[in-house]
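Data availability (excerpt). The following record was deposited with the supplementary files.
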Amino acid sequence: MGALLAGLLSANPYAGPFWARDLNALVVQLAEPLADAEQGERRRLYVDLVHFLNCEPLAPTPATEALFGPRTLLRLEQARRGRLGAAATSAPTLWRDVLAPDFFRRAAPLPQDQALRWPLEDERWNHERLEFRLKPSSCGQPVPAADELSLLSPQLRTALRETLEDEAWARLSHHQAARLLVLGQADAAREVARAFDPAALAPEDRPLDDMLRLALGLLPPSHFERLAREPALAAYRLPLVVQAAAWLAQEGRWEDVLALTASEAAWPGADTPPAEVAPRREIFYRRALAHQALGHRETLAQGWAAVFPALAGAQDPIAEALRGLALASLTRGGLGPESLALLRDLGPAAGLGRRLATLGGLALEQGNTRLALDVAERLLKEPGTPGRARGHTLRAEVALAAGDAAGFTRAIERLLTLRRQDRAATKDLDEVDRIVLALAQSVVTTSADLTEARWRPVLATQLEAMRQGVHSRHDKVFPPLFAALEDRAPQAAAKGKRARAFVAVGQVAVGAPPGMLPPPDFSVAWPEPYSLLALPLADGTSRAWFPRGPSSPPPVSAPAKTEVPHAP
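Predicted structure:
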């Protein structure tokens, strides 16, 4: 079929006037007698093209036509205009040219008062030529709503695959896959994308197709790094960098995260376009992870000033993750004025006690016992009951980590005494109960590392004291904790009764770095292709449309003098 198509397109008398953007000359050429049947095939394509450029309806094309593929693309492109609607006049597609009144020369070469006309006759004079006047363009008329996808049935795709050149087929298939993805039909989009070879696309179109295949999951996420550096995709750099930075962070390539995102390092400000705020926050978050992993404490400290207190009241995942990173960045130092100022900026004043308790726990995990004790002392000075309860809890955890059984017992006794004696509001007592329950969970988790025999009775006694110290409605929480502490199997159930399943409490690693958020879904505004067409050149090859941009040459000008036209 390719050889037949090339044969039909060679020696093409219609290509010259068209590519010279002279519709009047093209119509004149179409009126000339046909040299052979093959020229008739070519003529039908260019008759369609004239109607297309005049925005006139196109009749269905018989599938037996040798040029069925190029003629069908005209109809698909016409349907695309129906989908674009009024945006077609400004969209970066061929419709911007077709709808421009001066892109093609449509006027006759001579003014009407200089033209001599008489009826058609078979006899021709030397140098005599026909003049055919184009019908007035219909491009200014409203177009009915349409969609090219509705025309692309499986049967039509099969017929087009047999009659289109590889590049035109790949370009059409890429567009169909992108449109299906936009419409939420990802499975259908993947099926279409798998059905063509991306190598058949023009080199300038391949990066965009790679991005589409990444969005469809047909390429591994490692390709995001390459595409983020692709100059042809500069308009999509921000969402690509978000995905690439997330993948590099998942791989632990922290230096590469910082290098890739260097130009997007700043936290979004007041002048940041709204569409860029979310991706730039994502990038800042990945950079904060990298600085934390690489131990860049000063850089992190300088960065928090731009983020907090601006996000003090935010509770979205990025804000919470950054808040956690900021707390973690304080665990290596002491509880000085700068640390306290940042703790206040991280959120509402009512949550300062919780943030202090979180910092103390993180410091203890990092082995900074001094900071954990300083935080506990600061909490014990809080005016509210929950804050002081957190201080006693932190002291108990420090004693447990230090192997100080007496200090552990003393801290829990004071915690439960506070629960019994303090005349606090009901909501505060409920909060204290939650603090005690969290400590009970922590005690059982830590017990796995306390192998000395002296610890089991101490832990069991204090666990029972906590059970008795909180509200009785929490009794059901404790049997699984006792079971895990005593490392006993679930009790056998009597016949006809369900066995009580005690939960063994512990810590489980899940693979991803602690606290790392997954990247957002990859989403971009997929661009319209410049053209869906495949139009023959004079040498028999094809081209989608005229060169893009304002550099296209103007249409041929009318000659100053010409022979008398012959008008019908």
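Summary of structural features: The mean pLDDT is 86.
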